[in-house]
Design brief:
Elements: H1 27-40, E1 44-47, E2 54-56, E3 71-74, E4 79-89, E5 95-106, E6 111-112, E7 114-118, E8 131-136, E9 149-154
Parallel strand pairs: 2-6
Antiparallel strand pairs: 1-2, 1-3, 4-5, 4-8, 5-7, 8-9
Length: about 160
């Protein structure tokens, strides 16, 4: 059993698919976050009334004092690009027709942030520290998911 095998033919293997289905729920905090995006076109975060920390993505408990977070606060409309990357290939390594800019966006007074697409700007013009605002899908097209924010654009 402890003997190392170096020849590929000595291993047993089989080909095929394993059918796996799952249901991923967004949880209590996530549900309110996504409902805010869908119904109000607002980014909502949880707020600790004891520590006064605002969390995005929302959480159920404060990281510092472990208090249950049941207070909600709207996130400021303007965010700041904290860091970014420019993708020239898709996840399978195929070239993209247009480069895609992805950024970590932070908001004043908020612990955390969102990673999302940046648009309406050329890749060479993107800068850390730039101010951006969300562009939401039309209300009748929103589905209660993070892509209800189509992208962020320079403000």
């Amino acid at each position: 059993m402890l003997e190392k095998k170096f020849v590929d033919q000595e291993f047993t293997r089989w080909s095929g698919d394993i059918p796996v289905s799952y249901l991923y729920t967004s949880g209590v905090a996530g549900e309110q976050f996504f409902t805010g995006l869908k119904n109000k076109g607002k980014i909502m975060a949880t707020r600790c009334t004891k520590c006064r920390i605002v969390y995005l993505p929302p959480r159920l408990f404060c990281e510092r004092c472990l208090k249950k977070l049941d207070s909600w606060a709207p996130v400021p409309k303007k965010g700041t690009i904290t860091t970014y990357t420019i993708a020239y290939q898709d996840y399978q390594g195929q070239p993209l027709a247009e480069p895609v800019i992805l950024a970590l966006i932070s908001f004043k007074g908020v612990h955390g942030g969102l990673i999302h697409k940046i648009d309406e700007i050329l890749p060479e013009e993107v800068k850390v520290g730039a101010t951006v605002v969300p562009v939401f899908e039309d209300k009748n097209k929103r589905q209660g998911r993070v892509l209800d924010i189509k992208y962020f654009k320079p403000s």
